[in-house]
Amino acid sequence: MRKLNLLLSFILGLALFFSGCAAKKMEPKPENFLTLADLSGRVNLKEDSPGVRVIRIKAKAFIKRNDIRAAKAKAMEIAGAKAVDEMVRELLADEDYNDKFADIEQYLSKNIQKYIIKSEVNDEKKIFGGRYYGIDSAHKVDRQKVLVALQKDLKLINNSASSLVVVITSKKDIDLSASGFTFKDIEESMMNQIQTDLNQRGLRAMDFRNAVTSAQTDEKLKEQFGKISKEQFMAIVSGSPADKALLNTQIQNAEEFYTTGLSLLRQLAKVVIEVNIFAVSGNIKGDIALSLNVTAKNISTGRGGAFANSVINVARRGGPSVITSSMITGLVKDSYTDMQKEFVPQVIKEMSTISVGGNPLIAYELVLKDFKSKEARSLRTKLKQVESDDFRYISFDNSVPTIVTIIVRHVGKTEDLGDKIMEIFDSKGINTKEPIVAPDLTDLVFVRLPDEE
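Structure (tokenized):
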């Protein structure tokens, strides 16, 4: 009997042992503490036009009352706002963005979906110990709508960055008498077509004469610029030396005028488009054809030069009852339809992407797990003390037990921000795991380690 009792005790103890092991296996290990870095997926959205950007964002939201659907929706909302913010950073000069990021965020957040064409979730799962729901998402952002908001509503983009000058030229010996209309008819129709379309896209398109008038800052320049011809204007744009720019025969101090003119033009516009009409053959009573070359040059930077060029040939069948104005309109529309295939998209892309130096302030979330309240509070105090043009403390969230999130903005590499925080912890004798740094990741997770005995 005694042996039987010993055997039963042994079996019971063994069962309790395995039960305890099983219970321990149910606890999440530190290495299984999932973060946004563990989310990854394949992006299906395409940048199918120069007016859009596909931006990949990882985001998370707190799971309230175990409602996964609501948490996912909130995470998508946060990701969409971050995607639009990234588009803003691409369009704005860094100094302007850093000075006005709070105003930009407040304005754009009112209707964030206005700027997003389509969104998708590439990967999703519970993270941070099951307290948050994380997503890896992609968003197709409407570049033009964001650009318009920055230009017209927030007035953060200088007009010259969104302005372009359109010039219609032709060979001197082109004869349109047989066609039934004049060169001025084509010029005005073409100018109206280009300006109307580009203005509707959020750009500021003006003709050569308006550009010249706008550049007249004093009486002396007004007198000189008032005489400048299209040929001289285009010679300045092309970068020809003054003695070859047809300036010396008409204007005294041609070199000085040439240099001043180019400097003023760069303040006025970013791009110059030249439509050079080669030939108009035929007439409105029969077949008629229009041949032209269209070129776009970026004059706002030292590199300058042409970045888009197309040769376009269109034709129409006329007849005895054809109206002259309708034939002109038809030819111009046909040629502009051809421009919209490649030329116009290249212009829009060049106008929409402003290359600037420096770095913008980017929002980061510092996620602290298992830190004592006093330690998290001490870190916040230290971060406020080290604020500068390159670093800003924004806010914090301690609504989730064992997890504190501190929101900051930082200029520079992500790993530099991680090192900054680790150095603060080291100076206070706090042991923590080094955060994971990965592309598309703006969450830095610091897991508190037990103190060494």
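The chain has a mean pLDDT of 82. Residues 29-157 form a domain with the Thiol Ester Dehydrase; Chain A fold (CATH 3.10.129).
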